[in-house]
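User: Quick one: structure for sequence A, then sequence B.

Assistant: Sequence A:
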Amino acid sequence: MQNYIRQSLSLAGTAALALASIPFGAARADDAKVAQGSAKDLGVMSISLKDAIQPNFGFQGALQGAGTPNQSGIGGFLPLAIGDNSVFFLDAQANANFADYNNYSSIINTKVAGTTISTSSRLGYRWLNGDRSWMFGVNAGYDSRPMATGGTDNGVYVTNSRSVFFQQVALNLEAISNKWFTSAYLLYPVGEYGYNKAPAIINNVYTADSVMTAGVDVGYNLTPNLKASVGYYYSEGDAGASNSNSVKGRLEYNIANGLTTGINIAYDPAFSEGYSSGEFYKTLNLSADLKWRFGANGYGAPSIRKKQPVVMPVIQALSATPANRDVRVHDYCSPGFRGERCGVGEIVRWKRGECYLILSTKPFKYTRVECTP
């Protein structure tokens, strides 16, 4: 697992260096051409970050994804110390997590139920390079997710549904220019159900654990209001059921100042198991999100934004909300039953002690067999 983490962070470092040093003479030249002037001519160097970086707060919401819930809540960005070319900040969120929709489990088999409150906090430092053409940053924090559970989406009868509490620590590195952006992140489960610890029992059949995730994203600003990104991430869980290499894509649109929406698509084998190659479209996880921040014109006053649109992404990035903050959860058949997880060909024991042979996982099919010692 350490190798995957080092590989992901190394990829991000390589991407950041490549983006900062390469043919980006070309990207910076294009930016300067569009603006018809140098950074100095545009007055970028004269922008006071104390005026440009302001606290902002508001609302965010997202539909369920691969291991993540339907949620909505409040959040805010607070600059703690602002220098001539840097900012030290705190960003915090609290979300209400809702039940899964359309009889479809976000954690594979067991449906998330009820309403719980999750939290996320990030403490970070961001700085601009000498000519303010790039912003670099590092942030770290803690995320929590209480999870209530209900029935299943595969026909398996469960009893004694329980609520459990998952936690993780996070690290994120980022590099952003007026055109490109990249980040590397690590989400590491801690606490009672942390990495390499016993999973949580959520009912009489299934257990669940939070998923360690390490990944890297690279994106491009297609227009001043539209950006696209692609990413790779590796997931690992204690039972092995959530181990996978995955890819994702995102489109984000700035509807108005402070109001943004995004569409996400991911191919994550751990959260789409059981389908044949002929049903590839069913292996994709789709989700959407919306965020509204008041006082979110952290890229400067409106007059500055109007005169220097080409520098705005870098200045705005100084007070942007950090990404990759969800505690991802995956369930599987309890190790207390015969079979480590609900895998095809395995035998599990449930429903008053009867034993069943798993024929397929999605849709879930099984047949009763004789129990063996």
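Sequence B:
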Amino acid sequence: MAQPSNTPDFARALEAYEQWLKSDINIFEVNGGTLKDRSGKTEFISQSDCQKLADHGLAIRGALRMAIEASVPAEPKPGDKMFDGSVYAGISPDTNKPMYAMPADAPLSMTFNEAKKYAQGANAQRHYGHDGWHVPTKAELNVLFNNRAAIGGFNTTESASDPAGWYWSAKSYTWTAWGQRFSDGCQGNPDKGNHSSVRLVC
């Protein structure tokens, strides 16, 4: 979904949505008379109060969805920022569906195994509201490279090209994994122990 226009309706809906996301209660965890906050603490409240909380979250999301649908272009372009904070990266060659990227690399370069754990953690915490984050496939990584200027934030400096200028893909071999250097597009099989960069997609 492409960058929505800055309409008053959208701005109001987005503000309400952001306030709702910042609340202590994760509406997605409401179940019967039980709810969980973001620390995992479980509390028990009345069924009617649970329903009110759930209805409030649904109403906010519904208003935001309508505002977005009324104000976004039909076809997003690589680099367009989504309302949830992710960035449209292009079409995944593997699924032929829209692919979205995190707006920035992982905070630190990491080994191949650490990259997989980073993706698992992002899903557990539902970063940007999604739980489908993964290290890109070989083909998806090349899409990120081709659209790197529009998406932004990649390590493309020659001085940091090895190994932090390489990006991991999910393709794994015995001792190596497929990677791509974003300064020049060079592809190869870096050692899994290298500390390379990571940009998750979903």
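The mean pLDDT is 78. The radius of gyration is 19 Å.

User: Thanks, that's what I needed.
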